[in-house]
Amino acid sequence: MFIDVSDLRKTYTSGMIKNEVLKGISMKLGKGEIGVILGPSGSGKSTLMNIIGGVDRGDSGKVIVDGIEVSKLNDDQLTEYRRDAIGFVFQFYNLVPNLTVRENIEVVSNISKSPLNIDEVLAEVQMHDKKHRFPRELSGGEQQRVSIARAIVKNPKLLLCDEPTGALDFQTSRSILKLLQQVNRNFGTTILIITHNTAISAMANRVFKLRSGEIVDEWVNQAPIPAEGIEW
Amino acid sequence: MVMVLNKRLMRILKENKLRYLGILVLIILGSYTFIVAAGLSQNLAMLVTTFTEDYVQEDLSFSTDKPISDVSKLENTFDALIEEYMSFDAELSDKLTLRLLSETKKVNIPAIIEGRALSGPGEILLDPAFAEANGYPIGSQIKAEGKTFTVVGFVSLPHYIYPLKNVNDIIYSPKEFGVGVINREEFSDIVNSANVYSVKFNDRTRSLNRQAVELREHLRAKGLTISNWIDIMNNKRARIVWASITGMKTMSVPVPAAMFLLSSLIIGIMFWRIIRRESVIIGTLYAQGYRRRELMRHYMAIPLVLAFAGGMIGSLLALPSIEPMVMAMISYYNVPVPGIELSFLNVMIGILTPMIFLGLSSYMVIRSELKKSPAELMKGDKQKAKVNALERAFKLERFKFSTKFWLREQFRSISRLVFLLLGVTSASVLMLFGFTVLNSMNHVFKTSDVYLFEYEYTFRDLQYGEAPDGAETFNAGKFYPENNEEIEFYITGIEPDSTLVILKDNKGNVIPNNQTNITKSLANRLGIKAGDTVTFINKEDGNHYTFHIDAVADSYMEQFIYVPIDEFNKKMGLPEDSYIGLFSTKKLDIPDEKLSGTKSMSELPEAMDEFMGQMISMVALMTIVSSIVALIILYLVTSLAIEENRNAISLFKVFGYRRREIRSLILNSSTFVVVAGFLIGIPVAVASMGSLYGYLGDMINLVLPPIVSPLYVIISFAAIMLTYQLSKWMCAKNIDTVSMSEALKAGTE
């Protein structure tokens, strides 16, 4: 399996209060698949994604991504892991405001060993004609497209998307999901999407339902539908 | 309601304590500099003015070949006080000269600053610096010219405030020269003493120059030959003190103004950021019924408290330092100190000015945000961000990513860019200013390669014939340009094949002495260049003489025009082989009664070393202060940049940027602005130097070259860059503490 998480636990302590966010999560996702983690706020889905992405650590358990045991990496190795293997797409895009569209993509291509051609990536996300604009001059959907372009320019093994449509309207959300599907298809990128929108699970190969730090349900989608067909 | 809100103020200050501390230090420096510089210049000016008025400083002095027969009639004719005094240079040792002056009653009245007045023969009043330097306390005895005097007190003289031996000297050394006042009767058995007349005109409404010219013409008409005519405006002994006063006065405005301006700029930027960051909170408070003025009062509290605290601390530190500083300057100048005045007005200005500066800048920033509607404010700052003209104007495609990032970072906030540029330029100017003064002085005093003689002897009367072995003859006259009697200088006839006066051009090539040459300092003052034909008036005979200037010599030490002595004598109508003085490489055996003055060049280096020592301390102090200012500015800008980039830094970490890559992107973004600020500082320093020097030229007849030496530029640049590195090092930790979760949670709060 491309992602293999077993018995992952995580507790946040604030003063005297302990909050067990992940209570022994185990999950698997195959290479080139789209996985969706569904769950309400506070279910631990972002924490799970952060640990898989190497920006946080679990307290116990194992996280293996493409054969790398992420849970055993030290800080410097985690940096290299994120640098080489992971692409991030955020709910609020997180573009650097004083860099143009193209420069925002360069932020990542600049540190990649073998980045894709920026103009081709921009064409892929249909933002080539707006490459000299600043994020402030773009709509939410356009900003998310740039964010996806930035994530895929390094040709990551795994694309982690945290509520990628959470801040967008229905039409725009659908176009973003379509774009993610297209990236998955064209580049063979494994994608893990976390969302509270159950409708999105229709486009996934595997779905994991999280509640209060536990996977309460998971299923394999034998026939994922194209993003255009998703309704909510 | 507002009281509860105000609990945040201390928390806001604590959150960014180093940053607010930096602003506080800038304000303290501003207030301190203003109160000290203004207090120093005002007190010195008051002391000098009171002294020169109360003790009747002369308007001019001169000597004559024959005594003036009826002084009181002359006084009536010219409505002036005229008093004759005696002067004699007693050699106490090879290197120590005491100028004995007779006590006067009407003009240049001696002011007893310690001890008592003269009561009889065998008593002397000494210049206190000379007494201290050579160990003559009150009650001690001093032997001069075969007589023994008891020191009964210390004295200040209005015409010897800065007791220079020669009126054209620049540096005074109490270890080599001093003045003492004795009873006039003591001169009865001192041969070869000089008689000098001091004049003070009573009519202060008429041009003093005009009155002086009339007096001189009258004396000439009476058949008197006048020598050593010195107007007070050209008398460095009396005027050089005004250089310090002017210097202090000049510093009392721009330096504090720059500090206050920088503080208000940065506080404006910081408040703009705080307000924007808190716009949702402000909108919410508005929506809940807070009034605009309540919020205004809340946000204005920090800059006003900061300005008030800075102003108060600056003033409290400055007030006790004024007296010791005045006393330190007075130890350099000889002026009685009846008391030091501390100005309440200055303290008020020192406190209120930063409050006005900071208050205004914050008010404008806060007001522009507070006038928006609650709904608009509650949307937060995301929608409001606009692309500024600079960001849009530059096409940066051809640069590599890091360069693009650095440039974008600077263009993002024009006010921050202006602050950084202004700050670095100000610090560089301050630093270069100190070094340039040092360099100018160095250049001026670098005379060893121009004047190769050891002694300069000036005779009372014209001499004839050949110079003794190892000596060269010269003749000289005092001149002034047409329409400007305030600038006076010597035209000196020297031997055309002189080997003791070696003038060089600015490329270091020797200029022949068989032509008319002008020193650079005088050329600058008169606006003359090589090839000009100029007419001057001889101060002694009042006639016009025309000279063709062949070359400008790169010498600043003195203001001279050199012509071949034969030509000089011919032009002045003097006998062909006549001369008034000798330059000599060795001591000559000339009877004292034949001489009116002797100058030893070896006295200069020691006095110069002492003076340069003080200069170096001053420059070191200026370098330290400007480094502190630069450090504060760079720290403020860098920490602001880090705060503005928290999300980007967090994002870089998420993307797998290494620590040093992030540090380089964020911390090095100011490098080219720092370098640009420094480069801008160079011409600004030269220009401000030029204008200050021009002023000094007018004020005290001292011309300095504003020369920026490459070595000092490199030293200043290194100091600025070192400060920059230090500020980066101080801020690096702040980058490391930015967590990845900031980017991950961005927009979700």
Provide the fold topology.
The complex is a heterodimer of chains A (232) and B (749).
Chain A: E1 3-14, E2 17-29, E3 34-38, H1 45-53, E4 60-65, E5 68-69, H2 75-85, E6 86-89, H3 101-109, H4 118-124, H5 140-152, E7 158-162, H6 170-187, E8 190-195, E9 206-211, E10 214-220
Parallel strand pairs in A: 3-8, 3-9, 6-7, 7-8
Antiparallel strand pairs in A: 1-2, 1-4, 4-5, 9-10
Chain B: H1 2-15, H2 17-54, E1 60-64, H3 71-78, E2 80-91, E3 97-102, E4 111-115, E5 123-126, H4 128-134, E6 141-144, E7 147-156, E8 177-182, E9 194-201, H5 208-221, E10 226-231, H6 236-239, H7 241-251, H8 254-277, H9 279-287, H10 292-332, H11 344-370, H12 374-378, H13 389-393, H14 401-412, H15 414-445, E11 455-464, E12 471-481, E13 489-494, E14 503-504, E15 510-511, E16 517-519, H16 520-526, E17 533-538, E18 544-548, E19 551-553, E20 560-564, H17 565-572, E21 578-584, E22 595-600, H18 603-644, H19 646-655, H20 659-667, H21 671-700, H22 710-736, H23 741-745
Parallel strand pairs in B: 3-8, 5-7, 13-20, 16-19
Antiparallel strand pairs in B: 1-9, 1-10, 2-3, 2-9, 4-7, 5-8, 6-7, 11-21, 11-22, 12-13, 12-17, 12-21, 14-15, 16-20, 17-18
Helix pairs in contact in B: 1-10, 2-7, 2-8, 2-10, 2-11, 2-18, 7-21, 8-11, 8-15, 10-11, 15-18, 15-21, 15-22, 18-22, 20-22, 21-22
Describe the overall structure.
The complex is a heterodimer of chains A (232) and B (749). Chain A is 29% helix and 28% strand. The model of chain A has no long low-confidence stretch (mean pLDDT 91). In chain A, helix 3 runs parallel beside helix 5 (140-152). Chain A is built from six helices and ten strands, in the order E-E-E-H-E-E-H-E-H-H-H-E-H-E-E-E. Chain A has one domain (31-58, 71-229): 3-Layer(aba) Sandwich (Rossmann fold), CATH 3.40.50.300. With 232 residues, chain A is an alpha/beta fold. The longest helix of chain A has 18 residues, at 170-187. In chain B, a hairpin with a 2-residue loop joins strand 6 and strand 7. Chain B is elongated and about 100 Å long. Chain B is α+β, with helices and mostly antiparallel strands. The chains are: A alpha/beta (232), B alpha+beta (749). The interface between A and B is medium-sized, with 34 and 32 residues.
